[in-house]
Amino acid sequence: MSRSSSASRSARSAVLALSLLAAGGCSQRAPATAACGNVAYQVSDPAEPANRAVFAFNRTVDDYLLAPVARGYTALPGFARQGMHNFASNFGEPKVFVNDLLQGNGERAMTSLTRFIFNTTLGVAGLVDVSGKMGLSQHRSDFGQTFGVWNIAAGPIVELPLLGTHNLRDASGTVLGLALDPFGSNSDTIETLGNVATAGDIVDTRAEALPLTDLLRTWPDYYLALRDYTAQRRSNRVAEGKAGVPGAWPVDCAGGAREE
Q1: pLDDT tens, 1-17?
Q2: Each residue's pLDDT tens digit, 123-179
Q3: CA 7 to CA 166: how far, in whole Å?
Q4: Predicted TM-score (pTM) above 0.85
Q5: Phi, psi of 137, rounded to the nearest 5 degrees
Q6: Closest of 244, 247, 4, 199 to residue 92, by C-alpha
Q7: Engineered SS bond to 123: which of 70, 110, 119, 147, CB 3.0-4.6 Å?
Q8: Are 249 and 40 in contact, with CB atoms under 8 Å apart?
Q9: What is the C-alpha separation between 124 and 79, in angstroms, rounded?
Q10: 223/61 Cα distance (integer angstroms)
Q11: Phi, psi for 167 (deg, rounded to 5)
């Protein structure tokens, strides 16, 4: 293995270790024009004391590292932030495509593939969302959503170090998503671009979530507020995947009914 390849792999591992860091972050974005749905969700948190301990660690890292970087990022010119958002999103399209196929959503899969081809070639490696201007709107799919579409139970809440709040199903999907590399690992250039895209997406996503997390922090119990919000969002995400239509249930709005 060459020295440059080893360094690139080490850099990627470091970036993935920081990915999401999101004691208070949100990894999915809602369609701007969608109205809130009302999908029921369940929360099972038998390991709450242990989860709270990990949450405290995650919140400290977020408070002193990720959130300050994200606030600084919001001061950049709008075109720079939009370019980073587009680039990071485009680099993630192959995983969206894989999950669309696994969910049996052929139309969504073709949209993902077409967006990736057009944005990579005509959009300068994805810096410009050419596909969006052509009416091919972006959607997100991930392995946690895929498992939900397959009717795998959500399972108990798991607070992962640096990766934030999940149910067991989504935690498994998150780990699988980090491990899967649709591009392979034979190109140092691809690995470098992947590191940039991952780091950019972490900061861009955290910056977009700042208004939400600032609001949730005003609640009496931030852990419960974020836990239940995440459960609602993921329930909406699974419902969207089952419907097969992006935006059928927006993923970043509260208001669903919690099932006891």
Answers
A1: 444 444 444 444 433 43
A2: 999 999 999 999 999 999 999 999 999 999 999 999 999 999 999 999 999 999 988
A3: 31
A4: no
A5: -75, 150
A6: 199
A7: 119
A8: no
A9: 14
A10: 15
A11: -90, 170
